[in-house]
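Support request from a user on the community tier.

User writes: "When I paste my structure tokens into the form, the page sometimes reloads and wipes my input. The last time it worked, I copied everything first. Here is what I submitted, just in case something in the input itself triggers the reload:"
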């Protein structure tokens, strides 16, 4: 099986490497641009509200799984739980939560998922839940 060769990204017009742009960590609990794109893609604010409701329903179990795996030192369970939550958070524009999950997922050992990082995850889960609850309940011109 062949390997994928990675190199600098070339701009089509110039054939030179495109500059690498460092992304700042997300600062918003929810990215309004992601939510707007999701609304546009789904064409219905009720669908976005429904996705938010499912996320809110599943969030306590997902964050509890991460906490339990971190306490047990179970690296694989921690990575799997963090990956699942990261994916769901990314879909809804919860960038801060997704970034924390990414750091937990990429930690080489569960011991590195220290108490401060797990406490940060739980705090951001609460903030994200509050923000998504507001999105879920907001009146919308599309309803």
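"...and here is what came back when it finally went through:"
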């Amino acid at each position: 099986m062949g390997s994928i060769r990675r190199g600098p990204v070339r701009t089509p017009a110039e054939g030179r490497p495109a500059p690498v742009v460092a992304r700042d960590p997300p600062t918003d609990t929810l990215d309004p641009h992601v939510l707007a794109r999701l609304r546009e893609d789904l064409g219905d604010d009720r669908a976005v509200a429904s996705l938010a409701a499912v996320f809110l329903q599943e969030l306590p179990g997902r964050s509890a799984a991460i906490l339990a795996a971190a306490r047990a030192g179970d690296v694989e369970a921690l990575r799997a739980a963090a990956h699942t939550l990261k994916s769901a958070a990314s879909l809804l524009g919860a960038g801060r939560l997704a970034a924390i999950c990414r750091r937990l997922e990429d930690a080489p050992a569960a011991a590195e998922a220290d108490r401060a990082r797990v406490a940060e995850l739980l705090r951001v889960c609460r903030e994200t839940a509050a923000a998504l609850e507001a999105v879920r309940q907001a009146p919308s011109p599309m309803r």
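Agent notes: The reload is a front-end session timeout and is unrelated to the input. The first helix runs from residue 32 to 42. The helical segments are 32-42, 45-72, 75-91, 95-106, 115-137. Escalated to web team.
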